[in-house]
Amino acid sequence: MNDDFSRLVTNFFKNDYRERGKVKWNGYFLSDHTSSLKQEKQQRQQRHHVTKKMAQMSLSEMKSRLQYASINYKLVIVQENYTDQTNHMLSNVVGIVAGFSDRGVMIGTEHILFENMWAVRLSHDNN
After folding, report:
1. Structure confidence at residue 99 (pLDDT)
2. What class has domain 59-122?
3. pTM, rounded to two decimals
4. Which of 62, 68, 93, 101 pairs as cysteine with 78 (C-beta 3.0–4.6 A)?
5. Where along the chain do its domains lie?
6. Summary count for the chain: helices (H), strands (E)
7. What does the alpha-carbon distance between residue 42 and residue 104 come to, in Å, rounded to a whole number?
8. pLDDT for res 51
9. Is residue 66 within 8 Å of 105, Cβ to Cβ?
């Protein structure tokens, strides 16, 4: 009996069983990726609510304010040059300057390119 069962199992794995391998793992990946995309979309929607447009600033003025905020550990408000479908500015990025790169600045954990910035204001500024 046990010998027949062993032969049956061996025969099954040799001739009939098809390992789904990559297909199975792609299914797991797709599920994780889809849930990650949904979570990212929710975060973007929470972050991107309509905000009042600030006066546009020159790049040198924005960099100067960012450097001041970095040195003095000041909270900054950065408005990016993005609008929604109704031409409203998206929400500002608020945080402490964490560092600079050759192309942008880190506000908290978010990297913002200089070319995408519209205005920078220190949180205590009124302008």
Report:
1. 94
2. mainly beta
3. 0.58
4. 93
5. 2-47, 59-122
6. 3, 5
7. 25
8. 74
9. yes
